[in-house]
Amino acid sequence: MNVERIDLNLLRVFDAVFEERNLLRAGHRLHLSQSAVSHALARLREALDDELFVRTSRGMEPTARALAMAPGLRQSLQRIHQTLGAPRFDAAHSARRFVVAANDHLTAVLVARMSRAIAVSAPHIDVVVRPSTRIDLAEQIDVGRIDLAIGIFSEVPQRFGAMALGQHDEVIVMRRGHPIGRRRARLADLAAYPLLTVSLGGQEEGAISGFIVERGLARQSEMFDRHALEQALARESLLPRYRVTVAHALAIPMLLRETDMLSIVPRPLAGEFVQGAPVACAELPYTTPGMAVRAVWHQRNEDDAGHQWLRAEVAQAAAAVAALQR
């Protein structure tokens, strides 16, 4: 293989197909026809002597060779772009698209607030929100399919940058008119009443101490501090009853309705629930250390003006959420 004979445009096509997993969408992104993308891919396959992508019911699935190439290639294209001089980023007129990973809780509390702000200041910028609960989150950041991940991470590998967005403590939420709604919650209540919990990925995905580790990135596997709850109950020889476990936090108000279940959720989310649903909240009868919310991105985007703008918008939204909790 003669690397010097490979057209740089073929590498751009590879990068687009790898991200989109679809020839038509890759063509739209590159302003090329589907046949032009297919022809370019055929040339690159011939040059590298590998299929690179195999057509499946889920789209164009990369081969092992393509998976190995993608991270380094994306980083190299980014460096070329920076070396040649990217145009000045102007949020008010830019039409860039940013992909943010967040669970539904942080989407409702933080991303929605950011979205409302940039709808005014950056009306042409698009933000795509993808679930941060997917098991390949770190890989998606590595290959450039996710620009920014927002969540609770106990470990962040050195190849990623990270920014603190605040501490979220926890409270109890319940239906309005619940038997404990008119007094302080007690530890015994958390054993007597069944619990509704949110799992962001559990033991079946390799969770250890409440976190799933993938490619060095350890993300939260449950939306509440299970260890703190069980430790507090154990001191009173009590056990919790986990009656319902769901994957989506925004389903909690509907599930609490007409039941005596309790749920432990981050305080900012409880505030959203109280405003929009017939639920009430109460302070926990034990202390928790709180969970640090962070934004994570790949270091190759550290100096990109657009990414810097995005991080600043997220930080501003997080500061507004924190101010409401004081």
Largest sheet: 5 strands, mixed
Strand order of the largest sheet: 4-3-5-16-7
Total individual domains = 3
Name the average pLDDT: 89
CATH superfamily of the largest domain, by name, is Periplasmic binding protein-like II
CATH architecture heading of the largest domain: 3-Layer(aba) Sandwich
Distance between the termini: 62 Å
Stretches where pLDDT is under 50 for at least 5 consecutive residues are none
- As a percent range, the share of helical residues equals 25-40%
Please give the count of helices: 11
* CATH top-level class of the largest domain: Alpha Beta
Q: Oligomerization state of this entry?
A: single chain
CA radius of gyration is 23 Å
The helix/strand order is HHHEEHEHEHEEEEHEEEEHEHEHEEH
Task: Give me the secondary-structure category.
Answer: alpha/beta
User: What is the beta-strand fraction?
Assistant: 15-25%
Strands, total number: 16
Gross geometry: elongated
CATH-defined topology of the largest domain? D-Maltodextrin-Binding Protein, domain 2
Overview of the structural elements:
This protein has 326 residues and is α/β, with parallel strands linked by helices. It has 3 domains: 3-84, Winged helix-like DNA-binding domain superfamily/Winged helix DNA-binding domain (Arc Repressor Mutant, subunit A, Orthogonal Bundle), CATH 1.10.10; 97-166 and 292-325, 3-Layer(aba) Sandwich (D-Maltodextrin-Binding Protein, domain 2), CATH 3.40.190; 168-289, Periplasmic binding protein-like II (D-Maltodextrin-Binding Protein, domain 2), CATH 3.40.190.10. The protein is 40% helix and 24% strand. The chain has helices at residues 8-20, 23-30, 34-48, 64-84, 104-121, 137-142, 189-192, 226-234, 252-256, 267-276, 305-325; strands at 53-56, 59-62, 97-101, 126-130, 148-151, 153-155, 160-168, 170-175, 195-198, 207-208, 211-214, 217-220, 242-246, 262-266, 279-283, 291-298. Strands 4-3-5-16-7 form a 5-stranded mixed sheet. Strands 13-9-14-8-15 form a 5-stranded mixed sheet. A 4-stranded antiparallel sheet has the order 6-12-11-10. Strand 10 and strand 11 (211-214) form a beta hairpin. The longest helix has 21 residues, at 64-84.
